[in-house]
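--- STAGE predict ---
source: upstream dedup step, 1 unique chain passed
mode: sequence only
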Amino acid sequence: MSVFRACVRAIVLVLLSGVLVSSATAQERTTRTLFEVLFGRDDEPTPPPAVVQPQQPRPQPAPAPAPQPSRRPAPQPAAAPDVENSENARRVMVMGDSLAVDLARALERLYSDNPEIAVIENAVGSSGFVRDDFFDWNEAIEDEIVADSFDVAVVAIGINDRQALNGAEALSDPWRSAYRERLDAFLGDLSAADKEIVWIELPPMEQPSYGAAMAQISSIHKAAVGAAGGEWVETYDRYLGENGGYSADGPDLNGNIVAMRKGDGIHFSAAGADKVAFYIDRALATEGSRVSLSGSTSEVSDLLAGTDAAGMLRPPFQGLEQMRLVDMASLVQDLGGTAQRAGDLVVARTPMADARGFALEDMLQAPAGRVDAFGLGRAAGDVENPTGR
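--- STAGE serialize ---
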């Protein structure tokens, strides 16, 4: 029995010692220095990592589209008033393929209130200088000249000419030779009949390969028209987009961005044709007057007019947004004069009848009453200011 009690006492003592040690340790851990409060203790257990709930991504707003030029709907062309042409009206015949249809209507709108201009449409769709079996323009122009049906030929043609000619592949060397021969014959008939020629450059096309072919055909046209002395109206650069390629939209005559081409990527819209008509009007402008056939003015004041310096050699005017000399040449010549080229504007004018040089005596002796007229060359008895004023 005594042994049993001794064992129980030993167990109790062991348990009590463990409790005392634990309480002492707990008390020791609860007492911390200022350093431990600020920086912690090395034996402190590392807290478990906090569980972070993943955040749902917020929907990002779509980037704002880049600002585009505001495109306004093209205004519908006004109906042309019924104005009777005068007996001596200048007859402008617009001839060519389907491009000429829209240009003829645009010129009719432009000259609708001008009785001195008569616009005649002579357009044949699907025609050109290649398929003379369909329509022969060389024969047709001879008939028109014999009938004396026009004074000015405005030609817009070529969109149907990318096809074989006399068995030669389009735009090959034999093709170019045969095509130029027909073109020269057409222009030769007009020049021989003393008809004015205004030729419209083919505009950019939406389809790249077709547009490249039209550009080559236009280069043949330009060389032939220049050799014949005709007027060349540029459209290619004027209808390019900002990126240098085809663009269906562009600024109209009022600066508004509208549709300038039709949906087929070939023909002009009404607004696009009106813009071409503006340049045609400049090409048709009466020689030398500053007033075009449509009545619009491009007046340029000469600050040296009436002075001794008016007769000196001067370069041509380069204002009006730096217009090209070939554009200005038709706006600054005399009414009814003969045609001139841009280079002729540099020729010196005829000196004025009363123009004279400055003599040395005029420079030494000042006129009476001027502030520097103080006696050089005067008699001793002369009074400078006898009135006292």
